[in-house]
């Protein structure tokens, strides 16, 4: 059964950094593009960043461009999100999934940016 498990969230001060991980199982991770999403307090879930399979080409939402870096390690079936220069507006639960959203959503990992 396909599964996604996010980790690495926490409480961080504005300007700080965090590295999120998403470990996949039950499907051929290396064959799929992968995305990070987030849902802030009282907000809809939004797309944050994406990475293609094979090429590794990346793309970012304007709100995180230049601050976040998405990467993947197909040998470990793991997706990463390096988040730098964090802002209070980045406070959210972060999720990963394939673009179609067909893999069951994980529990997410909570990121709180606050002084």
What do these coordinates show?
- It is a single chain.
- By secondary structure, the protein is mostly beta strands.
- Helix content is 0%, strand content 48%.
- It has no helices and ten strands.
- Strands 2-10-9-4-5-6 form a six-stranded mixed sheet, with no helix packed on it. A four-stranded antiparallel sheet has the order 1-3-8-7, with no helix packed on it.
- The model has no long low-confidence stretch (mean pLDDT 96).
How do you describe this structure in short?
It contains no helices and 10 strands.
Shape: globular
Helix coverage percent of residues? under 10%
The tally of strands reads 10
The pLDDT mean sits at 96
| End-to-end Cα distance | 40 Å
Element-level helix/strand string: EEEEEEEEEE
Structural class: mainly beta
Unreliably modeled segments: none
Count up the helices: 0
Major beta sheet summary: 6 strands, mixed
Give me the side-by-side strand order of the main sheet: 2-10-9-4-5-6
Rg value: 13 Å
Please indicate the percent range of residues in DSSP E strands (runs of 2 or more). over 45%
């Amino acid at each position: 059964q396909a599964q996604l498990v996010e980790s690495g969230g926490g409480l961080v001060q504005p300007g700080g950094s965090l590295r999120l991980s998403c470990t996949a199982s039950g499907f051929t991770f290396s064959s799929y593009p992968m995305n990070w999403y987030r849902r802030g307090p009282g907000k809809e879930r939004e797309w944050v960043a994406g990475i293609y399979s094979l090429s590794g080409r990346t793309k970012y939402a304007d709100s995180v461009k230049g601050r976040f870096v998405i990467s993947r390690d197909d040998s470990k079936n793991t997706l990463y999100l390096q988040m730098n220069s964090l802002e209070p507006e980045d406070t959210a639960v972060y999720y990963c999934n394939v673009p179609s959203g067909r893999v069951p959503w994980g529990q997410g990992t909570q990121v709180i940016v606050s002084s």
